[in-house]
Amino acid sequence: MNPLVYYQVVAVLLLGLGLYALVARRTLVGMLIGVELMLNGAGLSIVAAAQLTPADAVLGQLGALLVMGLAAAEATLVLAIVLVVSKRFGDASADAPSELKG
Amino acid sequence: MNELYLGQFAFAFYTLIVLAGGVLAVSSASLVRAMLGLVVSLFGVAGLYLLLLAEFVALMQILIYVGAVTVLIFFAIMLTRASADGGEAEGLSGAGVLRAVPIVLIPAGILVPFLAVYGVAGLPTPKNVSPAELGAGLLGPYTLAFELISVVLLAAMAGAVLLAFEKRGAKS
Lengths: 102, 172
Fold this sequence. Notes:
Chain A: Its main location: membrane. The complex is a heterodimer of chains A (102) and B (172). By secondary structure, chain A is mostly helical.
């Protein structure tokens, strides 16, 4: 076992924790926390693969920075969506917006 | 030899922080406590970046994730006027946990054996890249990605403002 595999295993564990939160949580904010954990695992995996193999290290680090930018954009949009859902349905649980009109 | 043991100890320490924070983030009944766990986990990942000699990424992790994204999520908890438990007071439902466990085990059960068998033999020590080289990369071959992420952020901000200012009386 070399160091790269250990870092990748930590990234897989973060992915698993995020998936667990995404499925098991009731509220939209709890699910968002799971998504952030998964994106962190992705960034860790990218940086480890770039730093510990002969691949281009600059590309890997910039890729991780882009993942962070995407996470920030995604968190902004989810904040707005949570606001709209809680305004219209009274609470921010994932089950609230499940009824169709009509 | 001594440095090697020190590095392994640091890796185990940061991994412990990451996992402890992550478990708190996914299992806590209170959303505010879950956010605290997420912050701890993010700091642990920043420590792992430092171990990988990616100190610029580690700083950005603390600035962007811990500084900005976490505050945004705290705003989401606050503005939905949820109580401190944020609607998770009943805890995780039994059916939800039952559904979640196989969903975690399937990707982990596929990826970890693949890593163990086909894992690439990496370098023993990480490479050292200065922030100046990162800047040169952003202004050189990766300019398009840099500009595109700016456009994505602008679109996300504009969309968020548009959604949040929706008229309350508007029936739709």
